[in-house]
Amino acid sequence: MRTRSHLGRGLAAHAVLLTYTLIALFPASVIIINSFKSRRAIFREPLALPTPETWDLVGYIAVLENGDFFGYFLNSLIVTVASLAGVLLFGAMAGFALSEYRFRGNTLTGLYLALGIMIPIRLGTVAILQLMVSAGLVNTLTALVLVYTAQGLPLAVFILSEFMRNVSDDLKNAGRMDGLSEYAIFFRLVLPLVRPAMATVAVFTMIPIWNDLWFPLILAPSEDTKTITLGTQVFIGQFETNWNAVLAALSLSILPVLVLYLIFSRQLIRGITAGAVK
Amino acid sequence: MAARRPIRWHIAVFLAPAVLVYTAIMIVPLFGTLNLSLYGATDDGPRFVGLANFRALFGNPMWSDAFWNALGNNVWFFVIHMLVQNPIGVLLAAILSSPRLRFRAFYRTAIFVPTILSFVAVAWVWRLILGNTWGIAPMFLDSLGLKSLYAPWLGKEEYALTTLALISVWQFVGIPMMLIYAALLSIPDEVLEAAEMDGITGWSRFRRVQLPLILPSIGIISILTFVGNFNAFDLIYVAQGALAGPDFSTDILGTFLYRTFFGFQLQLGDPNMGAAIATAMFLIILTGVCLYLFGVQRRLRRYQF
Amino acid sequence: MSRTVLAAILATTALAGAVQAQDAVTLTIESWRNDDLGIWNDTIIPAFEASHPNINLEFAPTAPAEYNAVLNSKLQAGSAGDIITCRPFDASLELFNNGQLADLTDLGAMANFSDVAKSAWTTDEGASTFCVPMASVIHGFIYNKTAFDELGLTEPTTEEEFFAVLDALKEDGTYIPMAMGTNDQWEAATMGYQNIGPNYWKGEEGRAALIAGTQKLTDPEWVAPFEQLARWKDYLGDGFEAQTYPDSQNLFTLGRAAIFPAGSWEISVFNPQVDFEMGAFPPPVQNAGDTCYISDHTDIGIGMNAATEHADEAREFLEWVGSTEFANLYGNALPGFFPLSNGEVTLEDPLAQEFISWRDQCESTIRSTYAILSRGTPNLENETWNASANVINGTEAPADAATRLQEGLDAWYTPAQ
Predict the structure, then answer these.
(1) Dihedrals phi, psi of B145, to nearest 5 degrees
(2) Contact between A204 and B303 using a beta-carbon 8 Å cutoff
(3) pLDDT for the residue numbered C343
(4) What would the pLDDT profile of B270-286 be if each residue is shown by its tens digit?
(5) Pairing mode, strands C293-304 and C132-144
(6) Among A29, A88, C177, C285, which is least packed by CB within 10 angstroms?
(7) CA of A204 to nearest chain B CA: how many angstroms apart?
(8) pLDDT tens across A64-112, in order?
(9) Which DSSP letter does residue B292 get?
(10) CB proximity A106 to B under 8 Å
């Protein structure tokens, strides 16, 4: 009897998950399928799979030949990874300080750091640009990394401090009695235990960075520092859009982010299984 | 005699890098811009006008009608997310965390794919699916015999905002799902096994054991949804343009702000009014967050393992 | 090799490099025309650099929707390029008044342009001009000639004939009569209201009267175009409310719709995409024999960043842009963008020739909302977009729309007496 109810529940679970998976994947697959078709075929029959007549790589060719595609890709990768490193490290440190220690101004600092979630950073564009111009950082990847780190910190601190509150005090006090410094407690005890939260923060910090058009456009539009999103916006014209190229570009940019996501979700699992073994 | 407490330098060290980068690059420029709301433009340059911009924003019907319209739309946008996105996210996370589930990684990744897509991709593909020009949605409804239910939703004042909100839900369900999933997985197995030994399984176990333990995470998601929605901009901007048609029915605070601050087409940017709108938005969001932090979060019981 | 020798060699190569660099200056051109990247890189820039070896050009367009915001931010912070593509009228006037665009009144090439051409880039009193006019666009209707021949239809000249053609197309059912959606509201205003409108408000006469205050947007000649637009609803195909501008373009080029209310820029967009013959006709007049009016709108100009370090080279480039050589290059590379130069320009594209022939038959005018009338809030151009879309959708009556527009205008505009 137990097994039958288990089977029933198992089937129901898979049914729900499969339904939602279809809803989630269908639109993405429309994009990818159509990126391999000729322009006419895309709009004649958007749902049809590419056939030998309609198969056309013209979009991918346009994207790969436009400027230095791999250079743009590298720029995006460098900016995203460096910003993530900054956000995760500084965010975890600040989150730890806020969740662990009682000191005057703890709540205020927490609120101060959370202010950044509440205002869109785009408002400060001119001032940020002026700052970068006077620091000589225009058209450098450093400018982008700095801006994205600043942008991602508020959310990271908010989430990580919350998850760090769940780490057992007994564990930390035991560490202190063993003579570990606060820094060692942070790096060796607490950080590994919040890996799931860090992985989660990493995932939703990296997506807006990878897909962002605005700051690369303002701060680093030169050919050497173009990111992928900026490099491919050239296909969206005032009156004419090269749909093949746009779809190819969109399909191509799903891949790296998906890979990064897979890496981080591995970390999530590893962190959880590691935490369970105490 | 009480010993003097040693100065806890490590607190400052932990906080310094984040606070420095954040202050220099985010707070200083942003508050410099918000400061513009206290100024007005004249032929001789900016002039301090105190709260005049705010009086115009709330008093002059030309501005206040647009502001209240945008605020109302934004609230509806938020309600849809709270009612649809978060429950679905929690449900999916709960199912995914069942111990004996197969293909877990595949489902998790597949459900997260929409969140990876850029706004351009999301807007383009949903427009393609929902529009009548290329016939996907009508064809689909027709096959179910429900053709009469079809309307060009994105072009109709009554439906456009709800449709866009649902598209946004589709895009971002992965986020509450991931957070709750992480929270559920950090519940030690001993707790779950103990519940099972007491005969509490399935839905009952979720409601009585897991849910209370993940309430703090649900709290975080709620406040993040609130902040995210009231700052939302990109999807509406890419899908409907800065004028947020049809007839401003999809205008939310973010698009209203962008249009005013940066201008649109022949309309020149008005940084002063724009900054006033941004300040108003900021205060609204701040109020919401404070209400949450001091009203709800303090009361949440946290469990340590 | 000793360190000092190495250092000396490095220093001399650096010096040599610096000397080389002094000869060639690179000018960066800001623009919103992503569409033109290929044309500039393949045709225009090589032609210029051949005759001006000391100047290199880099055409660096920005996403069109973001251009104004990005350009203004960059100009304020000092990181904008040397050459600026100018939007017509107030957007550029503001840049000039802020001292961000250089005064070009004394540029030799300015003599090649009429006052009308320069009006979009001249200060109100007419004293200073700050951009070299590059091109104008003309509005009309492009149609599928093959479809028309199939159904035995001819180009309509009057309002009555226009709706007769539309009815015939609708009756037949093979083609959607007109390809236009209201989701991208500017279609409704620019290819709708501003396209057919001049025939009702008599072009420049009406526009000047509106500015002077002797006519109002609620007068019959200004409401009539809205009334015409309200009738278009029946001929636009199912679900047009959610149809975007690219959708409309695709409907027409794929041969599913027969008529496309157009701006002449579509010529270069459609040419590579259609597999049928295209024709064009000007906006229909009210009664046979009336004078016809076309929207011939000064759309794109080019000027100089006042803070550029290479002012002399920039002016050299702008002189060339004002020349007949450039006009011919540009007009033929981009059929549909008509050069404003007084010089002799020969266009090869037949559809472009058709459009430009209307200048001889009809009176030209610019779009009614662009000069002076969109300086305040509410912005008349944006409001017209909104009103036109509503009228076609049927959610607002033409008279109500006109009243709303006039009230908005009255809120800030007092005609100079």
Answers:
(1) 80, 15
(2) no
(3) 83
(4) 889 999 999 999 999 98
(5) antiparallel
(6) A29
(7) 7
(8) 888 888 899 999 999 999 999 999 999 999 999 998 888 888 888 988 9
(9) I
(10) no
**Chain-chain contact of A47 with B136 (C-beta, under 8 angstroms):** yes
A268 with B182: Cβ contact below 8 A = yes
Q: Do residue A116 and residue B170 have CB atoms under 8 angstroms apart?
A: no
Tokens for C157, please give them.
Answer: 């000249």
Which tokens hold the place of B101?
């589930």
- The subunits that touch chain A, with at least 3 C-beta pairs less than 8 Å apart, are B, C
Rounded CA gap, A271 and A197, in Å?
9
Look up tokens 């508020």; give the residue. A154
Confidence of residue C5 (pLDDT cuts 50, 70, 90): low
Q: Which CATH architecture has domain C138-296+367-410?
A: 3-Layer(aba) Sandwich (3.40)
State which residue of chain C sits closest to B249, comparing Cα positions: C386
Query: Which of A107, A118, A125, A277 to probe the B interface (max B CBs under 10 A)?
Result: A118
Domains of chain A: 2-61 (no CATH), 67-238 (1.10.3720.10)
A101 touches chain B (CB under 8 A): yes
Mean pLDDT of chain A: 86
Q: What is the pLDDT of residue B142?
A: 85
Task: For residue range C14-50, list pLDDT tens digits in order.
Answer: 444 444 445 689 999 999 999 999 899 999 999 999 9
For the C24-135+298-349 domain, the top CATH level (class) is alpha beta
- pLDDT higher than threshold 70 for residue C7: no
C77 interface with A at CB cutoff 8 Å: yes
Q: Evaluate whether C24-135+298-349 and C138-296+367-410 have a shared fold.
A: yes
Domain ranges for chain C, please list them.
24-135+298-349, 138-296+367-410
Domains and CATH numbers, chain B: 49-298 (1.10.3720.10)
CB proximity C251 to B under 8 Å? yes
Tell me if ipTM is over 0.90: no
pLDDT score recorded for residue A278: 39
Establish if A185 touches chain B: CB-CB under 8 angstroms: no
**Which one of B154, B247, B262 has the shortest CB-CB distance to C386?**
B247
For chain C, positions 255-314, list CB contacts with chain B under 8 A. Answer: none
Flag if B32 and A17 touch (Cβ within 8 Å): no
Lowest mean pLDDT among B147-156, B174-183, B207-216, B293-302: B293-302
Percent of chain B scored above 90 by pLDDT?
Answer: 38
Strand partners, C142: C260, C280
User: Do the Cβ atoms of C239 and B267 come within 8 Å?
Assistant: no
Q: Give A11's pLDDT tier (boundaries 50, 70, 90).
A: confident
Q: Do B257 and A96 touch (CB under 8 A)?
A: no
Q: Residue B267's beta-bridge partner residues?
A: B264
Q: Best of C367, C370, C382, C395 to disrupt the B interface by mutation (most B CBs within 10 Å)?
A: C382
Chains that touch B (3 or more CB pairs under 8 A): A, C
How far apart CA C68 and CA C59 sit, in angstroms, is 17
pLDDT tens for each residue of A139-181: 999 999 999 999 999 999 988 988 888 787 888 888 888 888 8
> B88 vs chain A: nearest CA distance in angstroms?
10
How far A187 CA sits from the closest chain C CA (Å)?
A: 41
Per-residue pLDDT, C14:
47
Contact list in A for residue B112 (CB cut-off 8 A) is: 24, 203, 261
**Mean of the per-residue pLDDT values for chain B?**
87
Q: What integer is the mean pLDDT of C302-307?
A: 94
CA distance B92 to B291: 28
Q: Which of C318, C345, C349, C178 is nearest to C248 (CA)?
A: C178
How far, in Å, CA of B40 to CA of C379, rounded?
A: 18
